[in-house]
Design goal:
alpha+beta, Rossmann fold, Serine Threonine Protein Phosphatase 5, Tetratricopeptide repeat, six-stranded antiparallel β-sheet, DENN domain-containing protein 3, WD40_repeat_dom_sf
Length: 1267
C-alpha cells in the first residue's frame, strides 16, 4: 500500500534515558548512595514512520500482533546487544537479545529527520530524574531544512516510575527490589508533521497518554506504534471550507484547513501575544521582525516560546520570515546566538542574564513579563512602525474581546467534553479571524504605497522615489525595511502580481476617491483636499495618502463638463469601540463543513486498512451525492479527499476521475505533482483503460501541457524572480535604451511620449542621450514634483479650488495685470497666488481660453517679455510679465488648453493627463538644457497643440452628443492593447485585453476594481452565468469560470479540443440553466450549468465556427462561410450561405444578430460594409440589405431597444465607426466616430448605455448614451 501523500504524520519519536544508565542510578538510589539525582543525556529510543502496513504482510500474523516483521522495517528501536536483558513474553518464555533485534536490523528513518539534535530539543532543560511524578508537560518545535522548508513537532514529557521501566527484568540473577522509595524518569513522545497542527497534535498526545499510563512496559512500544499508525492514516484537508475530524478516544480531534492555497495553516491561539504584550510593545516586536533584527524570546515555559513566535510571524503574513528560526534552543545550543546573521530564537528565562551579558546587538523579549529591551541598553533605539498604521492597529486591537470567560456568562456547565471543546474552538476561530484581519490591515497600511513605485514590465522598484515620499519620522524605518530579505520576497510577489491576502485587502480598502480620480490627475501630486492647512507633512500621512488610480472614471455620466471630484473623507471611523474590531476588513464568511473520518481499524493489518479506506471512500461518496451542485467549492474538496484516498488504496483510475472532477470545479487546489505520480505509476493495462475514457485522456494530455508550460516558465525563472532598483544610467543611450530607462524611472510609460522626449533632449546633437544630461533632467523632474508637494495654500485660497485639483507648477513672483504674485497651474485652471497676504485671483479655466500669445510689456525704456491670455466672457486680457519664463509658460498653457479641448470633445479625460505630462516634461527639458535651443526642444513635446494647429480634430455633433465618457484599460501599459471582449453584468463591466487578462470596472464610476488573469492566451468570448459566475472562452481551448464574489478563477472546463469562440445561455424545459459553447473546429457542447457536466455534444462541418446562439428551441451557429440553424441534437435544419455578391470575395461572416420577435436574422461580414437581413423562415437569400456609408468591414452587432448597433471600420480614415440602424425601417439613424481603430466589441448596459471597444491602435472603451 502506498504511503499517504499529504498525511498528518511524518514520524513519531520516543526520547528518554538509556536503560543501562537508569539501572545504575536506580541501584545507587536504592542503596541511598546518591546525594542528588543527576541530569542524564537523552537518547532516541524509538522512531515510527509510515508506511506501517504492506500488502505482503504474512496472513498468519493478521490475528496476532498488529504489526508483522515487514511492518517493523519502518520502525527504529534503540537496542544494545551487549547488555540488554532478555524480554519476558506473555507466555513466560524469554527471548535473547540477538533474536529480538533481528527484526529491526534493517532500520529505516525518514531522511529529513535529524535524530542528533532531537533529544536535546525534546528535553531542552535536560533530562532530570525525580522522586515524585510531575505533571505532563507539552512544548512545540519547528525544524527548518537547508531549503527553508519547515517541519513541526509537538512534544509531551511524561513521567514513569523507573521500576515499571525495568519491569520484569533480572540483573545478576536477582529481581529488582521495588519496595524502597520510587524513582521517576521522564519520557518524551514527539509527533512530527509537515503541517503546524499544534493544537490537534497536542490533543492526539493527550489521548495517547490515557493509553500509556496503565500500560505495562512490554506494551509500551506497541501502544506508541499503533498510535503512530493511526495518525498515518489521517489525510490532511485541502485548502478551503472543508475540515477533517477523527476520534482518538476520549477526544474528537479537529484538523482545520488553510483558507486558500497561499494562506498559512492556523491551529494555534493567535491572541496569546495580545494577552502578554501591551499594544505598543507588540508593535515594537513586529517592527524588529520587519527590520530583521537578531531577536531572542525568553520564557519559563518552553511551550510559550514557539506559540508566541509562530503567532507573531502569522501577524506579518503574507510577508514571510526568511532568516534562521529556532524558537526553542536547548541549554547546549546557546552558541547559536553568536550567529552573525539576523535570526529569531527562543531560550529559557534562566539564561536571560547570561545571554544579555555575553552577546551583542540582540533584541531580548521577555515573553512572561511582556518586556522588550536590547542587550546593549534597556530601551529599544530602533525605528518604530509608521505612526498612522500603528494608531489604526491599536484602535482596532482595543476592541478585541480576548477572554473566553465572557462568552460563558450566560451558559450552564457543560457535561460533554467534546461539545465544550467545539464551543471553545468556534470562539477561537472567530477571534483568530479578527486578529488576522487587523494584523493584515497593519501590513497593508505600512506597505500600501509600494505598488505605486513598481514598473512591472521591467521589474523595477523605484526605491529612491518611494523613500522620498515617506513621512520624515518614518524614513529610517523604511530605509531599514527596504534592505531586508522579507521585503525583497514581498516585492517579488507584488511584481508577479500575486493575488494574495495583501493584494485583496489593499484593493478592497483603497480609498474610493483614489479609484475614482479622473485621468487628468497626476499620481504623484497632492490633491487640494489632501493638503492640510499645515502643509506637506500632514498631506503625506500614509493613512490619508491616496494611491495611484487604476482606471479612468467619471462617477456620473450625466455630470457637466466642469465636474468636480467627491470630497475625500477620512477612512477611520469615528468610534471604533462601537463596532466589530475588524469592521470593513471582513470578507464574506464561507460555511465550513467538517468531514468525520471513520473509526480506525482495530488491528492495523493490510486488509483491515483497505476496508478503512473503502469506508472513507464510501462516506465521501455519500457526502458528494448530498452536496448541491451550486456548492462547487465544497464538491471540489470532497473529490480531492476521495482522490487522495483512492491513490493510497491503489485505485488509480478512480483517483484520476476524482482529480478530473476536481480540476473542473476548482483548479486552485489541483495537486498536479500527485496526479503526475499517479499517471506515471499506471500499469500498461490501466493506461490503456485511461486512454479509452475521454475524461481521463483529456486530463492526462492537459497535465502534459501544463508541465511543458511550467518548464518553459521555469526556464525564465531568473527573470521571473529578478528585482531591480532603479539606477541612473552610466553610459550614452540610444532610443531603445532611453525608452527603457524612462519607463523604469516611473516618469512616463507611453512610448510615443518618450520618443518625443528623446527628440527634445537630442535637438542639435547626435541621437543619443548622455548620462549627465539624463541625471540633470531626472533631478529637475523630481525637484519640481517636490516643490509642488510643498505648496501650502491658506484656507482663503483653497476654498476656491476643487478638492480633486493639484498644483503642478508655480511661476516666480511676477507683475501681472491683476496684481503681483505667482501664477499657479493646476489640471483645470490658472490662478494668481497674490503676494503679501496670500489671496486667490482666478486667471482662467483652460476650456475658457480664446487666445494665448507672447507679447511684451513696456518698462522704462525696455520691453519685458509677457504672456497674454484672452478669456471667454472677459473684455480685458490677462497679462503677466513672466520675463525669461514667458516662452515656456506659453508652450505649457497652449498644450493644456489643447488637451482640455480634446478631452471635452472626445469625453476622454486621458487627453488632459497626457497634456499635463507633456507640459511638465517641457518644464524639465527647458531646465535641463539651459541653452538657446531649449524652447525649441520643449516645443517637440507640444503634441496636442500641434494636432490642434495642423489637423483640427473636430468631433461631429452627433458623436459629441452621444458620447459620454471613455475608459482606457491600457492605462498602466507602455502601449495600447486591443479590447477583445466586453460584457456587462449588473453593476460591472468586464473587459478582456491583452492575453488572458480580464479587467472589471465598477459601472457606477467606471473605475477599475479587479483584475483577473486566466491562462496565457487571447480571450474570445464572455458570458454571465447565474449571479455569481462569468464564463470566459479562450484560444487555449479552455473555458475559465470566474467567481463574481471572490473575483478569482478556480474552475475550468477543458472538454474542447480547439479554441473556444462562442458562449450562449438558456433555460430548458425543466427550468434548468443550460449553457452552449462552440470551438473553432466546429464542436458544440451543451453544459448543465449546475453540475458543469457536458449533457451532449456534436460537431458541425464549417470553416471556423465563430459563435452560437439559442432561439426558440434551436441553435444558430455562425461560421466564416455560412450560418447554420441546427436542432439541439446537432442535426442541421437550415444553412445560410454568403450572399451571391460576396461569394468568391474575401468577405466572411463576422457576427449575427437574432430578432425572434420579428423573425429576422441580421448578419455582417468582416470585409463588407453591408448589413444583410434574412427571414428566419426563408434562408435562401437576404431579403434586405443596408449599405453602410464609408465602411469597409463590420465586426460586431447588438440590439438595444429598437435599434441595432454595428461596429466597423471606415473606408477613408480606417478609423472605427459605429452605425445605429432602426429595426423597423432598416435605415441608418446615426454614424458615430469615437475610435482611432476598428470597433472590435459592443455591449449594452441595461439599454441605457452602449459600450464599444477598439483595436490596439486605439485600445479604448467608449460609453455612448442610448436615445
Amino acid at each position: 500500500m502506498a504511503e499517504l501523500p499529504s498525511g498528518l504524520l511524518e514520524a513519531c519519536v520516543v526520547v528518554g534515558a538509556p536503560s543501562d544508565k537508569l539501572r545504575d542510578i536506580y541501584q545507587l538510589h536504592q542503596q541511598s548512595n546518591l546525594s542528588e539525582l543527576p541530569l542524564l543525556e537523552a537518547e532516541v529510543l524509538q522512531v515510527h514512520a509510515p508506511p506501517f502496513v504492506f500488502k505482503d504482510t504474512n496472513p498468519s500474523q493478521l490475528i496476532g500482533p498488529a504489526f508483522s516483521r515487514v511492518q517493523r522495517r519502518r520502525s527504529f528501536i534503540k537496542k544494545k546487544k551487549r547488555d540488554r536483558a532478555p524480554e519476558v513474553l506473555p507466555n513466560g518464555e524469554t527471548t535473547n537479545c540477538s533474536e529480538a533485534s533481528s527484526g529491526t536490523e534493517d532500520i529505516s528513518v525518514p531522511k529529513d529527520l535529524d535524530l542528533i539534535a532531537l533529544p536535546q530539543l525534546c528535553f531542552p532543560g535536560g533530562l532530570q530524574l525525580t522522586n515524585e511524578p510531575r505533571e505532563d508537560s507539552y512544548h512545540f518545535l519547528v525544524f527548518t531544512d537547508l531549503f527553508g522548508n519547515r517541519t513541526h513537532g509537538v512534544v509531551v514529557q511524561y513521567y514513569r516510575a523507573v521500576q515499571s521501566c525495568q519491569e520484569g527484568s533480572v540483573h545478576n540473577g536477582h529481581r529488582w527490589n521495588s519496595s524502597k522509595s520510587r524513582l521517576y524518569t521522564p519520557f518524551a513522545v514527539c509527533v512530527i508533521s509537515k503541517s503546524p497542527y499544534y493544537n490537534a497534535l497536542k490533543d492526539c498526545l493527550s489521548c495517547l497518554l490515557v493509553q500509556l499510563r496503565p500500560a505495562r512496559q512490554a506494551d509500551f512500544e506497541e501502544t506508541i506504534k499503533e498510535f503512530s499508525a493511526k495518525l498515518s492514516l489521517v489525510p490532511l484537508p485541502p485548502p478551503g471550507q472543508l475540515h477533517v475530524s477523527f476520534s482518538l478516544r476520549p477526544l474528537h480531534v479537529f484538523l482545520p484547513s488553510k483558507e486558500d492555497q497561499d494562506s498559512p495553516l492556523i491551529d494555534i491561539d493567535l491572541h496569546l501575544p495580545l494577552l502578554c504584550f501591551t499594544h505598543t510593545t507588540l508593535l515594537q516586536v513586529l517592527s524588529c521582525l520587519l527590520q530583521e533584527q537578531r531577536l531572542v524570546f525568553f520564557s519559563a515555559d518552553w511551550a510559550r516560546l514557539t506559540l508566541f513566535a509562530e503567532s507573531l510571524l502569522l501577524y506579518l503574513q503574507p510577508l514571510s520570515w526568511q532568516q534562521p528560526y529556532v524558537p526553542v534552543l536547548a541549554g547546549g545550543m546557546l552558541d547559536f546566538l553568536m550567529a552573525p546573521t539576523a535570526f529569531l530564537m527562543g531560550c529559557h528565562i534562566s539564561h536571560f542574564e547570561e545571554v544579555a551579558a555575553e552577546t551583542e546587538e540582540l533584541i531580548l523579549v521577555n515573553v512572561d513579563d511582556g518586556i522588550i529591551q536590547s542587550s546593549w541598553a534597556e530601551n529599544i533605539d530602533l525605528p518604530a512602525i509608521p505612526l498612522a498604521a500603528a494608531e489604526s492597529f491599536m484602535a482596532r486591537a482595543e476592541c478585541l474581546q480576548l477572554h473566553y470567560d465572557f462568552e460563558l456568562c450566560h451558559l450552564g456547565a457543560g457535561t460533554d467534553v467534546n461539545a465544550l471543546r467545539s464551543q471553545r474552538r468556534e470562539w477561537q476561530t472567530r477571534l483568530n479571524t479578527q486578529i488576522q484581519n487587523i494584523a493584515l490591515e497593519l501590513v497593508v497600511n505600512i506597505f500600501r504605497d509600494v505598488q505605486d513605485f513598481l514598473n512591472h514590465e521591467h521589474r523595477v522598484f523605484n526605491s529612491e522615489e518611494f523613500l522620498r515620499t515617506r513621512e520624515p519620522a518614518d524614513l529610517i524605518f523604511y530605509k531599514k525595511v527596504l534592505e531586508t530579505h522579507i521585503f525583497h520576497t514581498f516585492l517579488r510577489d507584488r511584481l508577479n502580481r500575486k493575488p494574495d491576502t495583501f493584494s485583496r485587502m489593499e484593493q478592497n480598502t483603497r480609498n474610493r476617491s483614489a479609484r475614482n480620480r479622473a485621468m487628468t490627475e497626476s499620481p504623484r501630486r497632492p490633491l487640494m483636499s489632501d493638503l492640510s492647512r499645515t502643509g506637506y507633512s500632514s498631506y503625506t500621512s500614509p493613512r490619508d495618502r491616496l494611491s495611484k488610480r487604476l482606471g479612468a472614471s467619471l462617477p456620473n455620466l450625466q455630470q457637466p463638463a466642469n465636474d468636480t471630484g467627491t470630497p475625500i473623507s477620512s477612512t477611520r471611523p469615528a468610534s471604533l469601540r462601537k463596532m466589530s474590531p475588524d469592521i470593513g476588513l471582513k470578507s464574506p464568511q464561507k460555511v465550513v463543513k467538517v468531514f468525520r473520518l471513520p473509526e480506525f481499524p482495530p488491528p492495523l493489518a493490510y486488509h483491515y486498512v483497505q476496508n478503512y479506506y473503502s469506508d472513507m471512500v464510501s462516506s465521501l461518496g455519500k457526502a458528494i451525492n448530498a452536496t448541491l451542485p451550486e456548492e462547487a467549492a465544497l464538491l471540489a474538496r470532497y473529490h480531492y479527499l476521495r482522490g487522495l484516498v483512492n491513490t493510497v488504496s491503489n485505485r488509480r483510475l478512480d483517483a484520476l476521475e476524482d482529480f478530473q472532477s476536481l480540476y473542473k470545479t476548482d483548479s486552485d487546489i489541483f495537486p498536479s505533482q500527485m496526479v503526475k505520480s499517479v499517471v506515471d505509476s499506471l500499469p500498461e493495462a490501466e493506461r490503456l483503460q485511461a486512454d479509452r475514457r475521454p475524461e481521463l485522456k483529456r486530463l492526462i494530455s492537459r497535465l502534459k501541457r501544463d508541465q511543458e508550460r511550467e518548464r518553459a516558465l521555469n526556464g525564465n525563472g531568473q527573470e521571473h524572480d529578478s528585482i531591480k532598483r532603479f539606477q541612473l544610467p552610466k553610459k550614452y543611450m540610444h532610443l531603445e535604451e532611453f525608452v527603457k530607462c524612462v519607463q523604469e524611472s516611473g516618469i512616463v510609460k507611453d512610448q510615443g511620449t518618450i520618443h518625443r522626449l528623446f527628440d527634445a533632449l537630442t535637438v542639435g546633437h547626435q541621437k543619443q542621450v548622455g548620462p549627465e544630461l539624463f541625471r540633470v533632467f531626472y533631478t529637475i523632474w523630481k525637484e519640481t514634483e517636490a516643490e509642488a508637494q510643498e505648496v501650502c495654500l491658506p484656507a482663503s485660497v483653497s476654498e476656491h479650488i476643487e478638492p480633486s485639483e493639484c498644483v503642478f507648477k508655480l511661476s516666480s513672483s511676477v507683475k501681472t495685470s491683476r496684481g503681483v504674485g505667482k501664477i499657479a497651474m493646476t489640471q483645470r485652471r490658472l490662478f494668481l497666488l497674490t503676494d503679501g497676504r496670500p489671496g486667490y485671483v482666478e486667471v482662467a479655466q483652460y476650456r475658457d481660453l480664446e487666445e494665448v500669445k507672447v507679447s511684451s510689456a513696456p518698462f522704462l525704456l525696455l520691453r519685458i517679455p509677457s504672456l497674454k491670455l484672452r478669456v471667454q466672457g472677459r473684455k480685458e486680457t490677462f497679462e503677466a510679465n513672466l520675463k525669461t519664463e514667458t516662452e515656456l509658460w506659453n508652450l505649457m498653457v497652449k498644450e493644456m488648453w489643447a488637451g482640455r479641448n480634446m478631452a471635452d470633445q472626445h469625453k476622454d479625460p486621458q487627453y488632459m493627463q497626457q497634456a499635463l505630462t507633456n507640459a511638465l516634461l517641457m518644464d524639465a527639458v527647458v531646465g535641463s538644457l539651459q541653452s538657446s535651443k531649449a524652447i525649441y526642444a520643449a516645443s517637440k513635446l507640444a503634441h496636442f497643440d500641434r494636432i490642434k494647429t495642423e489637423v483640427p480634430m473636430m468631433v461631429p455633433k452627433t458623436t459629441a452628443e452621444t458620447l459620454k465618457h471613455k475608459i482606457n484599460p491600457s492605462l498602466e501599459l507602455a502601449a495600447p492593447q486591443a479590447v477583445d471582449v466586453l460584457l456587462y453584468t449588473p453593476g460591472q463591466l468586464w473587459v478582456s485585453v491583452s492575453v488572458g487578462k480580464v479587467m472589471v470596472f465598477d459601472a457606477s464610476s467606471w473605475s477599475l476594481t479587479h483584475t483577473c488573469h486566466v491562462g496565457n492566451a487571447r480571450l474570445n468570448c464572455m458570458l454571465g452565468v447565474d449571479k455569481d459566475q462569468v464564463w470566459v472562452g479562450s484560444e487555449d481551448s479552455v473555458i475559465y469560470i470566474i467567481s463574481m464574489v471572490a473575483m478569482v478563477c478556480n474552475r475550468q472546463l477543458t472538454d474542447h479540443r480547439s479554441e473556444v469562440t462562442g458562449l450562449a445561455l438558456e433555460r430548458d424545459k425543466q427550468s434548468q440553466k443550460v449553457a452552449y459553447s462552440c470551438s473553432a473546429e466546429g464542436s458544440v457542447m451543451v453544459w448543465d450549468v449546475s453540475t458543469l457536466q457536458v449533457k451532449r455534444h456534436f460537431r458541425l462541418s464549417c470553416d471556423r465556427l465563430l459563435s452560437v446562439y439559442s432561439c426558440n428551441g434551436t441553435l444558430w451557429c455562425c461560421s466564416r462561410d455560412n450560418i447554420m440553424e441546427v436542432w439541439r441534437n446537432g442535426s442541421l435544419k437550415h444553412r445560410l450561405n454568403l450572399p451571391e455578391q460576396q461569394k468568391g470575395s474575401t468577405a466572411t461572416f463576422s457576427s449575427i444578430l437574432l430578432l425572434p420577435e420579428k423573425e429576422e436574422l441580421w448578419s455582417v461580414c468582416m470585409d463588407s460594409g453591408e448589413v444583410c437581413i434574412w427571414h428566419i423562415k426563408d434562408t435562401t437569400k437576404p431579403y434586405h440589405r443596408v449599405a453602410l456609408q464609408d465602411c469597409t468591414g463590420c465586426y460586431c452587432i447588438i440590439k438595444v431597444k429598437n435599434q441595432v448597433w454595428v461596429g466597423g471600420v471606415g473606408r477613408s480614415s480606417t478609423k472605427g465607426k459605429i452605425y445605429i440602424l432602426e429595426t423597423e425601417r432598416h435605415q441608418v439613424m446615426k454614424e458615430l466616430h469615437g475610435h482611432n481603430d476598428k470597433v472590435t466589441a459592443l455591449c449594452s448596459a441595461e439599454d441605457r448605455y452602449v459600450l464599444s471597444g477598439a483595436g490596439k491602435i486605439d485600445g479604448k472603451i467608449a460609453i455612448w448614451k442610448v436615445e
